[in-house]
Amino acid sequence: ARLYKQDIAGSIAHAQMLGKQGIVEEHEVEQIVEGLKAILADIEADKVEFSVDNEDIHMNIETLLTQRIGDAGKRLHTARSRNDQVAVDTRLYVKEEIPVIISMILDLEQVLAEKAREHTDTVMPGYTHLQRAQPTTFGHYMMAYANMFKRDVTRLEDCLERLDECPLGAGALATTTYPVDRFQTAKALGFRKPTDNSMDSVSDRDYAIELLSALSILMMHLSRFSEEIILWCSWEFKFVDLDDAYSTGSSIMPQKKNPDVAELVRGKTGRVYGDLNTLLVMMKGLPLAYNKDMQEDKEAIFDAVDTLELCLKTITPMLDTMKTLPANMRRAAAKGFINATDCADYLTKKGMPFRDAYKLTGCMVSDCIAADKTLEELTLTQFQSYSPLFEADIYDAIDLVHCCEGRTSYGGPSAASVEKQIALAAARLDAWEEENA
User: Fold this and answer.
1) Could you tell me if 322 and 242 are in contact, meaning their C-beta atoms sit under 8 angstroms apart?
2) pLDDT of residue 433
């Protein structure tokens, strides 16, 4: 039933082609088209009840049409099969959903860019192995995820380009003896061209697998981001605080504020992976051409699209209303010796070989841990006891803000670099909106 719009659109294009090619009388084509439009209006007005006795969406529509306009309705199926009919319906559905999903991803990217713009100088620890590693900024962190989602958009755009071929007219597998014009129906339905091989047309579900592959990667990115938020909400980190609308309390522990939405996004990722696996396993042993196994594609496609859109709809406002706690981020950055690399780089710039500087700084960190101190708390005399290369400018070199601002390489965490990343994201968003206005 979810494919009623696509099925009716395909039927109208097919009927008009039949009329133009002289396969069906023009007056009957007019009856068919008007009848289909009336059925569409009635479905959208909730005046139509589909029947399982009619087996599928195609036969439901055709039965309704024949009941309303008589024998002319029976001519609609001339020169086509349910095999090419369902293929065009499903392609149309995917073709329409991809821009919707891309638009939702771009909304999320915009929120990420806004958060980044607000926090280009909010210092926080960057991590490797979930251990504090080097200083970065919250803005830099946000743009890391924005770049992941940028790639998700390009994957979906690639999928859209490849599926932009129309299978209508392929028939059951070997086209038809009627003089159909597949280029006319492809153009009428907004496809770039008809598919090149009729057997492949009805047996191909690559576009659906590619869609679910792209959605699985996108869900993986959403899940990773959700995991960060779950960690950041904990008292062990407390870098952010979620709005009450996106968290819940405990039924027994009154102090709890659980990041349930982020956990649900993380959990639903496995569901989309399962949908992808369903299609891969369904298709792996099918000989050409159409096989009934392939009707299992729709449930997986619909579920993956619904799940993904629900997650994007929810995570974007959750992020938008999320409160950041910069003081906590800065306190965390002050611990863990995340400026140790900068200390080693300082010695290297003064002439010490990097490996020697690395080893010496490691010894300094070990001594500081034993003394319960940070590198910044060492006196200049203490620094110079390790190496005479240390001078008063060491304090600037290991200052956390300077550590970030000193990383001016393209893509780095300096404020200027993050601003460039934000500008690129904004340009992508503007280009999409202009193209799809």
Assistant:
1) yes
2) 86
Reply yes or no on whether the pLDDT at 275 is more than 80.
yes
The DSSP line for 399-412 is -HHHHHHT--STTS
Q: Report whether 405 contacts 110 (CB < 8 A).
A: no
Distance, CA of 411 to CA of 427 (rounded, Å): 16
- What's the token pair of residue 197? 């091989």
What are the tokens at 257?
């504020």
What 3-state class would DSSP assign to 135?
strand
Tell me the C-alpha distance between 345 and 307, whole Å.
47
254 has pLDDT over 70? no
3-class DSSP assignment, residue 165: strand
Residue 334 pLDDT level (bands cut at 50, 70, 90) = confident
For residue 375, the Cα-to-chain-centroid distance in whole angstroms is 42
CA distances in angstroms from 419 to 6, 36, 78, 116, 426, listed in the order given? 43, 53, 59, 8, 10
Read off the pTM: 0.93
State how far the Cα of 48 lies from the Cα of 101, in Å rounded to an integer: 29
- Return the amino acid letter for 258: N
Nearest by Cα to 37 from 13, 18, 71: 13
Q: Active site includes 140?
A: no
Listed residue (2, 12, 210, 202) closest to 98, CA to CA: 210
Catalytic residue among 51, 234, 250, 366: 250
Is pLDDT of 255 > 80?
A: no
Instruction: Report yes or no: 25 and 15 within 8 Å, Cβ to Cβ.
Output: no
Alpha-carbon distance of 92 to 167, in angstroms, equals 10
Measure Cα distances from 411 to 117, 187, 218, 366, 417 in Å.
15, 43, 22, 31, 6
Provide mean pLDDT across the span 4-26: 98
250 is catalytic: yes
Which two tokens mark 209?
A: 């697998």
pLDDT by residue (tens digit) across 128-155? 999 999 999 999 999 999 999 999 999 9
What does the pLDDT look like over 167-224, one tens digit per residue? 999 999 999 999 999 999 999 999 999 999 999 999 999 999 999 999 999 999 999 9
Encoding tokens for residue 238?
A: 């407390």
Residue 118: closest CA among 1, 282, 240, 204: 240
Number of H helices, E strands in the chain: 17, 6
